[in-house]
Amino acid sequence: MQVKIIGAGLAGCEAALWLADRGVQVELYEQKPAKYSPAHKSAGFAELICSNSLKAERPDSASGLLKIEMKMMGSHLLDAAETARVAAGGALAVDRDVFSTAVTEMVENHPNITVRREEVTALDESAPVLVASGPLTEGALAQAVAALTGDHRLSFYDAVAPIVTAESLDYDKVFAASRYGRGEADYLNCPFNKEEYEAFHAALIAAERAPLHDFDGDLTVYEGCMPIEVMAARGADTIRFGPLRPVGLRDPRTGHRPWAAVQLRAENTARTLYNLVGFQTNLKWGEQKRVFSMIPGLEHAEFVRYGVMHRNTFLESPKVLTKQQFLKEHPNVFFAGQITGFEGYMESAASGLLAAHQMLARLKGRELPPPPAATMCGALLDYITTPNKDFQPMGANMGILPRTEEINIIRDKRERYMALSQAAQDAMQAWVKEYEA
């Protein structure tokens, strides 16, 4: 049995490792280092771009539930994440370089995986092929995809947050704490009073933005990776109730909750670098230095990376994909990862696992139903394949899980989410057992 996988991102690597463990001979194609996308910098596999956070681990959270389901399905990337873990309270965050190195070694050392570092310019439908080339797919491969899908694609813009050095922060202002005391004070917090926040907000919405190149038509910004300046322009308190929400924090200098707070998360295991949580941006670099230096504690911050914005291209999946993740009109061509509308690092990896299960079933001449809609994976598959004239990428969230009458009567939100999570875990466990049988 043999398959071809295009793209060594999270989805492609997860799929390749799972299939290879089951005796499938995998040819994994990766264009780096011969060719890089505008956002990628490293030759390693599973390179993380926007953030080093893989989000919450609590079972009553959407991200935590997704990870539990992935473990049931046989995830390898969660093992790699453990080796690269950095402190982040109740979240799973990683040292990006350590994580990428771990995944790369897993893939390159697997006897059933052949890595081909070359650009793919055409799609061969004679055998199953998985396209996991990511939302920055371009050039000849993008044209080949368009030829099969009838150009049913949507383009969005995605933004990246800046990174500062730890030694350049003002620790007389910045304090360490996690919201509600979760974790071991894994975040650094920059507290605003009301006057400081209002001045910062005014400067932020007035700051000059960088021009967007290679752009046709109207700009569509993905809600889940909204530039901070776009979010701020929606209202004076929008970011104060979003990424700058001060709930669960207490400024040790005043003994009170700040009016707003910017959180900084460790970017590496040595904790010498921190990224500005939620501060994806498309401001000009000089403007980022000027405006973000107004954040208390960042007055003299050294920026080792400024935020950037890049174009992401997604399939219009509701029109072209089946729930088994192959094209309706080209059943040997499977898709996985963010190019399908699974938005997020772990979501992308999960979609690779799901596609791998479907491909192995195909190789064995079987028809495999998708996971039940009561699971997070099944709900995400439902979302990307259900007709939607305003289709946008979607990450894991409790809102897409179906409710039963028993769950609806639970008033406490935490208890309700735990009940949803338990129902999803039971459904996924049954699906995995049925698949293995």
Automatic annotation (TrEMBL):
NCBIfam families in the cross-refs: gid_trmFO, PRK05335.1
Lineage: Bacteria, Bacillati, Bacillota, Clostridia, Eubacteriales
BP term (GO), one: tRNA wobble uridine modification
Obligatory cofactor(s): FAD
Record-linked HAMAP family: TrmFO
Keywords: Cytoplasm, FAD, Flavoprotein, Methyltransferase, NAD, NADP, Transferase, tRNA processing
Enzymatic class: transferase
One Pfam family this sequence matches: GIDA
A single MF term (Gene Ontology): tRNA (uracil(54)-C5)-methyltransferase activity, 5,10-methylenetetrahydrofolate-dependent
Subcellular location, record wording: Cytoplasm
Binding site for FAD: G7, A8, G9, L10, A11, G12
Protein name: Methylenetetrahydrofolate--tRNA-(uracil-5-)-methyltransferase TrmFO
InterPro entries: FAD/NAD-bd_sf, MnmG-rel, MnmG_N, TrmFO
Domain (MnmG N-terminal) ranges: 2-366
Function: Catalyzes the folate-dependent formation of 5-methyl-uridine at position 54 (M-5-U54) in all tRNAs.
Superkingdom of this protein's organism: Bacteria
Chief localisation class: cytoplasm
